[in-house]
């Protein structure tokens, strides 16, 4: 079975086409500047150099039409015809409380996603546009929705409820939802495989650390706590997002800086995080270089980020009554040797020790704990697309 995985953003679109018999990548690509002058498709067939295709694309239907044309192109396509695409898996950010797993997309599912637009106004509309475009362009192919929030629907009420009037949960579904669920689920399953133990017997802490970052406690294979909340703004300090702060800061700054709702949202989502502290960049590589050159604010940004991750790891170990393994994944988690070392250095009281030699690794699966560490520490590159494709195959095969 060949599965096309699609991830639609507001003006971009990522895709991968995979042969799921062997779980091999056939082609992948990225469309940028949808609806903006200078639209471009960067397509890469496995084993060939990247093709850069400049063509106007006014909406997601245009973008997906160009993607499908690239996939069947006689020179750089991956299949001979669209009939060789057996199913499409869509990454969808928010399903609210509607779904605790991936589902076949029906009109009822699309209506549920429409209802969740208030919860993810930047993400769900392009996700829905991608679904509708595929349904129009290749109507005979089944579509599956895989939700960022679904994995966290197993959290108990005390982990997701907020200490505000309960009526706001009843009326507006204001609660912790959590995100990065597909990534956390993938690395947790890989960790269990690498450790040679059933996931149902493990207590894992997954650290998805990138420009967006979250930590999840996974007990016996299910999410029991996660750092992102009602929106992806809560939790860890991130590239440009503030993470956990005193809520009173918001009204204080609105008054002092004469900010409206849009203005304060812009500050919290786009001007804060390590960018806000360092004044250098939202890219951790830039901040690390600045810190090495003696920039004290850059060093403070890194120390503050590492400290927050460490706090969540310790808290989630307490939440689960122990921990068998800590997992680092995503861009920073997979590649930053220094961040991993700094995060783990004060966790020896938990029996967690990192080997400097083993930690000298980037972008590949590895155990980085020392031999005398009671807690395993793993680096696992995430693969959300493969997880989406696997779910798609499972659902389509059950029809």
TrEMBL record:
GO terms of molecular function: acetate kinase activity; ATP binding; magnesium ion binding
Active site: 148 (proton donor/acceptor)
Known cofactor(s): Mg(2+); Mn(2+)
Cofactor binding remark: Mg(2+). Can also accept Mn(2+).
UniProt pathway annotation: Metabolic intermediate biosynthesis; acetyl-CoA biosynthesis; acetyl-CoA from acetate: step 1/2
GO cellular component assignments: cytoplasm
Keywords noted in UniProt: ATP-binding, Cytoplasm, Kinase, Magnesium, Metal-binding, Nucleotide-binding, Transferase
Residues the entry annotates as binding Mg(2+): 7, 384
SUPFAM superfamilies for the chain: Actin-like ATPase domain
Catalysed reaction, written as an equation: acetate + ATP = acetyl phosphate + ADP
Subunit relationships: Homodimer.
Family stated for the protein in its record: Belongs to the acetokinase family.
Protein name as catalogued: Acetate kinase
Organism: Acidaminobacter hydrogenoformans DSM 2784
């Amino acid at each position: 079975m060949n599965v096309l995985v699609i991830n639609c953003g507001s003006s971009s679109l990522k895709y991968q086409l995979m042969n799921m018999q062997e779980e091999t990548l056939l082609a992948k690509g990225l469309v940028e500047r949808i609806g903006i002058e200078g639209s471009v498709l960067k397509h890469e067939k496995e084993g060939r150099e990247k093709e850069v295709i400049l063509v106007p694309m006014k909406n997601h239907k245009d973008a997906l039409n160009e993607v499908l044309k690239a996939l069947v192109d006689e020179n750089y396509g991956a299949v001979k015809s669209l009939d060789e695409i057996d199913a499409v898996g869509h990454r969808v950010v928010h399903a609210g409380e509607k779904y605790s797993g991936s589902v076949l997309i029906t009109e009822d599912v699309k209506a549920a996603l429409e209802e969740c637009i208030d919860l993810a106004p930047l993400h769900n509309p392009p996700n829905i546009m991608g679904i509708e475009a595929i349904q129009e362009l290749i109507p005979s192919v089944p579509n599956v929705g895989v939700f960022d929030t679904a994995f966290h629907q197993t959290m108990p009420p005390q982990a997701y409820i907020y200490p505000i009037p309960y009526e706001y949960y009843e009326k507006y579904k204001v609660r912790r939802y959590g995100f990065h669920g597909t990534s956390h689920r993938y690395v947790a399953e890989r960790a269990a495989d690498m450790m040679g133990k059933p996931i149902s017997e493990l207590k894992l802490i997954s650290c998805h650390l990138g420009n967006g970052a979250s930590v999840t406690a996974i007990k016996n294979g299910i999410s029991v706590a996660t750092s992102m909340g009602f929106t992806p703004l809560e939790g860890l300090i991130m590239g440009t997002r503030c993470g956990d702060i005193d809520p009173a800061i918001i009204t204080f700054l609105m008054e002092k800086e004469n900010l409206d709702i849009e203005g304060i949202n812009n500050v919290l989502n786009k001007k804060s995080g390590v960018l806000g502290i360092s004044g250098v960049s939202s890219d951790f590589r830039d901040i690390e270089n600045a810190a090495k050159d003696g920039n004290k604010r850059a060093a403070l940004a890194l120390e503050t980020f590492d400290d927050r991750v460490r706090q969540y790891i310790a808290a989630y170990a307490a939440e689960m009554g122990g921990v068998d393994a800590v997992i680092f994944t995503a861009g920073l988690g997979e590649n930053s040797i220094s961040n991993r070392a700094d995060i783990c250095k004060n966790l020896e009281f938990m029996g967690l020790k990192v080997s400097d030699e083993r930690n000298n690794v980037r972008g590949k699966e590895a155990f980085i704990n020392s031999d005398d560490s009671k807690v395993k520490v793993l680096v696992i590159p995430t693969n959300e697309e493969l997880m989406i494709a696997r779910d798609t195959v499972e659902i389509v095969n059950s029809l």
